[in-house]
Amino acid sequence: MRFMQRERATLNELLPGLDAELSAMPLGDLECARGPGLKLFKDARGPALLVPVEHSGLGADAVSAVRVQRAIASRSPSLAIATTMHHFSIASLVDVSANAQGLEWMLLQAIAEGSLLVASGFAEGRTGQAILSPTMRAKVRGGKVVINGSKKPCSLAHSMDLLTASVALPTDEGERMAVALVGKDSPGLQVRPFWNNAVLAGAESDEVVLTDVEVPMDLVVRTEITPDQQLDELQTAGFVWFELLMSACYIGVASALVERVLLAGKVNASLRAGVFTDIEAAMRGVEGVARAISQERAGQDALVDALVCRYHAQDTIGLVVRQCVEALGGMAYISSNDVTYLAAASTALAFHPPSRGRMAEPLCGYIAGGPLSIV
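Now predict its structure.
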């Protein structure tokens, strides 16, 4: 079948064997807590996907990356969503490495060669809090940065090798946001249970707690956030990657249901064609923005484009999933948890930042000619 042929061909080219491994396993096994997906991803060199070739990585561009994430999500939603947090961190490190003279390139090479997973400790999941607000507090002591705080939920909490933590770092000009790179075995780092839902349990989204964790100063990247939460170039690029990759993941989850409908000959051809064209249109929008940032540096225009695609994808996914569940019928619903699970998992795109409601005023301000802020 031609549906998702392009995405799965890209996955097979970059991470040979992973799609076959995932497709051979029951969905329930892949989606359970501490399931096999993340090990398979590491064994396939998945953590090196966005690391440049010159640093021993696979050097995938944005178009290839969103195709890979859609393909993985159609097999295992948890795996795709968890690894998006890794790719988001790597994309930011790549951007820093291209404009810095520090140790970033060495870290990228270590991640690629060791197939290391990087968790993201940014302010996702705190209702009512601006997502650029640091999740943790920091102070400088003895030439090191000492961090206290927690991140919950934090995907890859158990399988991570490194954590990128957003911290409030005191400076002569007042507190500024910085990103610290923390090793999983750092004294004072703990993982506590947090995720109580069976849906997306395989993403390992538990709580990571840091208590007086010391980080060398050369593993702390300072950013230039203004008090009104306007974005600097690094954060803008990071958010573009996050929105595109996460949108592709949930399009992939919905695609798993679309695929079942397309294979079910009993379903009306008009409905089959309808869900196919709707989900493909959503993916083509994501690919269009991905192609643009592969050709030039991501700026605020690209971030607005990515947000437009993401919010449109939310609406499209909701419509397509409802149609697929109804078309597949009661027996598919009764005989297996898969349809129920995929339908439930597909709704979670709305929970990732920035929410549509909180971004309404900033988007209107941007359309009127002002700078974009993230709240």
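DSSP finds twelve helices and eight strands in the chain.
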